[in-house]
Prior knowledge:
The complex is a heterodimer.
Chain A: H1 5-10, H2 15-50
Chain B: H1 14-46, H2 60-87, H3 90-122, H4 130-151, H5 155-169, H6 172-182, H7 201-233, H8 238-243
Amino acid sequence: MWNSFGDFLSMGGYGLYVWGSMGACLLACVFEPLSLNLKRRALLAEVREQGAPDTGQSGS
Amino acid sequence: MPTNKINWFRFAAPQRFYPLAGSLTPWFTAAGVLLAAYGLYLGLWVAPTDATQGQAYRIIFVHVPAAWMSMVIYVAMAGWAGAGLVFNSRLSSMMACALAPTGALMTVLALWTGALWGKPTWGAWWVWDARLTSELVLLFLYIGFMSLHASIDDVRRADRAAGLLALIGVVNVPIIYFSVKWWNTLHQGASVSFKGTSMATPMLVAMLVMALAFWAYCIAVVLKRVRVIILERERHTAWARAEMGAL
């Protein structure tokens, strides 16, 4: 079906549309877990910084 | 059914669900990566060119799974929110909150890939068609759920208010699903068959493998998020503080 790599990339002239769709999904699936890692790290840092337990606050 | 071997309610406690979610996440991540690799191989190398749409049709391999997940996640979110309202169980509401951002992301992906598919086939990025409009309403429902939850300081009150919104919004899901039948839409009908001709087997298999990959990804990322939410909400408890190394 594909005669060359360039042929594969051009997707019969629809390259921008096909790769724009695939690329958006790939980006989303990479950045969503990464943003969760950052969120988790920030939470841990915040809780450790508060130090002693029993601050009387029930987390937000 | 006598199922006295495993007490499933045991895992309704956030403290017990936290390690379970942690041990399940890598399996779903691995399944998602392997299925996506196989699905893309099938979709981009094995599946033949479409007779009417040329190569542009290959967008289907991400568009349909994303659109399916946007609806499935909404129903799951409303289900957990409803369980949270009925049983007053904290973990249920945490699950609803963990599902919302991933559901919104899937909706954005469905709309984005749909626009990129609409331009070459219909000549327009967007039309106010019943299918597209109801999918846009779904995005607003997710955003509404998240912003309503974020706007109320008391977490349990936020759970109830946002949970109610999620339950009311669930009527939109059958509207999206049946929109192509109920109204005369530009969007093509049932996803498993192109006009007149049924979908070729390699195309169908590739799409179903990609759908499974999206399922696995969504389960993995939602479990990952619910763990962060559990720690955030249980930060005042001894076990959560020990888990976070703050004891």
